[in-house]
Amino acid sequence: MTIFRTRRQFLGASASLAVAASLGAITRPTHAAADAAENIQAQSLAPGFTLLSGAGCNVLALASPEGTLMVDGGFQRHSARLLAAVARATGSRKVNTLINTHWHPAQTGSNETLGRQGAQIIAHEITQLYLARAVASVDYTGLYGPLAEKGRPRITTRTTGSLQFAGRRVDYGYLPAAHTNGDLYVHFPDANLLVAGGPVCSDSWPLLDWRNGAWLGGLAKAHEKLVAMVKPETRIIPSHGPMIDGATLARHHRMYADFHEKMVVFQNRGYDSGDCIAQRPLREHEAIFGDPAAFITGSLQSLNLAYSPD
Predict the structure, then answer these.
(1) How many Cα atoms are found within 13 Å in the side-chain-facing hemisphere of 139?
(2) Paired strand residues for 28
(3) What is the pLDDT of residues 230-278, one digit of tens each?
(4) Which residue among 128, 192, 231, 263 is the one 20 to 30 A from 185 at the CA level?
(5) Is this prediction's pTM over 0.85?
(6) Closest CA to 210 of 282, 309, 124, 296
(7) In the chain, where are the structural domains located?
(8) d(Cα 60, Cα 232) in Å, to the nearest integer?
(9) CATH class of 7-306
(10) Is the dihedral of CA 73, 74, 80, 82 positive or negative?
(11) Separation CA 87–CA 90 (nearest Å)
(12) Positive or negative CA dihedral for 282, 285, 287, 290?
């Protein structure tokens, strides 16, 4: 068995394996909430805004006379149904702009279709790089990518960005090492509405893609950053599950910050994942989020990589 002694060695080996493997490998989601096989559900949030679920992640659509802005695009296999639902909800078959909150399959499955139709695609620059090659992840088995060139983002940011759409300001910004290494939030301040992306889940534990830069400290920091941006009554769209408000997000931040501190103590004691699970550090939250065993295991993996000496 190969032992990787540093985070750099591990990530370098992972990248090499991804390139060497077959580009046609079939991917299967491993995240429990990732692939709900159900009809697309549409919920009107405010004039022009529609929340759609059932395509693999929560998707937001904002209508305008020039077409629609979408935040995330579901799995490719659900894309046709999702885009039909978006057209019904907005009254327009044209999608003008697509923002990817990150590069996982559940967020980028409509990229190629919309890119071929002329939509501008916006993402973090790391998402753009990842979608140009085959990538392995803890989110799925096999490989994902590369997407066709028209399906890759053309407008990118390293930190923050902003645009005007349908008379509204749309702000987006980087959440480093939170769920992947290329996460964005999308904020509609005039509507008091935030799309939080992959780091935030309302009814399940988030996935830490530790193979690709995410770690528990980054998840806690992402929540801290988002909490500072919103009001207690701000409506927040998580990657999966029902909407929450800013006050609930603040409670989630405290939960993850406390959990991070506990996990660092466990790590310093030399605990393995079984030891950490046996301590039940998230017992008071299991009724809402479910069994945390996989999340605890991923959190320890991410801490071991983050704190390994280079």
Answers:
(1) 26
(2) 141
(3) 999 999 999 999 999 999 999 999 999 999 999 999 999 999 999 999 9
(4) 263
(5) yes
(6) 296
(7) 7-306
(8) 21
(9) alpha beta
(10) negative
(11) 5
(12) negative
